[in-house]
Write a structure and sequence with these properties.
This protein is of the alpha/beta class. The protein is built from twelve helices and 14 strands. The longest helix is centred in the first third of the chain and has 19 residues, at 14-32. Bound molecules: 3-isopropylmalic acid (IPM) and magnesium ion.
Length: 356
């Protein structure tokens, strides 16, 4: 099969980590007989510098013509003082909205080899951890009405949280489908004791659950969920939640694994189209020094093979190659520990490709 992939390397370490991920993808192509065509495009800070906007039309057009998008990282201190709608983040939200990427999958997996990296005690974390956060990505307060107005105590600013039945239903279905292939438990996180939007969320998730009698559903308030995640993360399997709660809880879950440089993500639209990116940022302090960990981007490519191309064997081959490299003791600086072999971005990419 031939696949067309829009590649948005972005800023900071984005270009170097995507380069290694593409190397691995090309190796998958050779080994399994697929051809991947890449179109590299500007997005984020580099696009602001070159064109004045974080998401040029040409980039969006090419994304729409592709089977999938691979994104490196966007943003950096250079663009931090720009107004809200001109920042690199606006480009990311524009991509999510325009491409209809409503389902954000953020696995928080603690690799056995990196157990010591967790900030939690070994008796809390156990042998390993594997949680899938399913975050709604194109609704809620991120996309609701916002603005400023005059108020009794001076100027007021507001953002609106709102969810429709259809929006909750489709994200809930994604979570239940995923849970079905795992241990079969969904925790839906909301704030239904206070928010009307959360009460609707809870009603709809409960309704969708009827179609999945084989999956256990539990509801949890977001404050409790934040606490339970560090108290006993092992109780969770799939967490499904709103855009903003998912933003917060997925950072918390990823920190528990201690290795943010390892975690991939997928943002899916209806059908098979998706955008894949590491969850880490652009790390401008180490950019261009061959120090960045490319494994999160490489594992994002594995997610692309699984969810967009439905090539499960190829996805597993990439994940196994990463496990193998870690077992052999190779580490980039961010996951280095005594007695292991320190390698750079490029060597790490070559090692993984070598095991495909
Ligand atoms: C994320 C990020 C983004 C978000 C920012 C950069 C807009 O924190 O992907 O989690 O809040 O969604
Ligand atoms: Mg975030």
């Amino acid at each position: 099969m031939e696949y067309r992939i829009a590649v948005l390397p972005g800023d900071g370490i984005g270009p170097e980590v995507t380069e290694q991920a593409l190397l691995v993808l090309e190796q998958v192509g050779r080994r399994f007989g697929h051809s991947f065509r890449f179109g590299k495009l500007l997005a984020g800070g580099c696009a602001i510098d070159a064109t004045g906007t974080p998401l040029p039309k040409e980039t969006l057009d090419e994304c729409m013509k592709s089977d999938a998008v691979l994104l490196g990282a966007m943003g950096g201190p250079k663009w931090d003082s720009l107004p809200g709608d001109k920042r690199p983040e606006a480009g990311l939200l524009g991509l999510r909205g325009s491409l209809g990427l409503f389902a954000n999958l953020r696995p928080a997996i603690l690799n056995k080899e990196l157990r010591d990296a967790s900030t939690l005690r070994p008796d809390v974390i156990g042998e390993s951890m594997d949680i899938m956060v399913v975050r709604e990505l194109t609704g809620g307060i991120y996309f609701g009405e916002r603005g400023r107005r005059a108020g009794k105590m001076g100027q007021e600013a507001y953002d609106t949280e709102s969810y429709s039945v259809g929006e909750v239903e489709r994200i809930a279905r994604i979570a239940f489908e995923i849970a079905r292939k795992r241990s079969g438990k969904v925790t839906s996180v909301d704030k239904a004791n206070v928010l009307e939007s959360s009460r609707l969320w809870r009603e709809v998730v409960t309704e969708v659950a009827r179609d999945y009698p084989d999956v256990a559903l539990e509801h949890m308030y977001v404050d409790n969920a934040a606490m339970q995640l560090v108290r006993n993360p092992k109780q969770f399997d799939v967490i499904v939640t709103t855009n903003m709660f998912g933003d917060i809880l997925s950072d918390e879950a990823s920190m528990i694994t201690g290795s943010i440089g390892m975690l991939p993500s997928a943002s899916l639209a209806e059908g098979r189209f998706g955008l894949y990116e590491p969850i880490h940022g652009s790390a401008p302090d180490i950019a261009g020094q061959d120090k960045a960990n490319p494994l999160a981007t490489i594992l994002s490519v594995a997610m692309m093979l699984r969810y967009t191309m439905q090539l499960e064997d190829e996805a597993r081959a990439v994940e196994k190659a990463v496990d193998r490299v870690l077992e052999e003791g190779y580490r980039t600086g961010d996951i280095m520990s005594p007695g292991k072999k320190l390698v750079g971005t490029r060597e790490m990419g070559m090692l993984v490709a070598g095991y495909i």
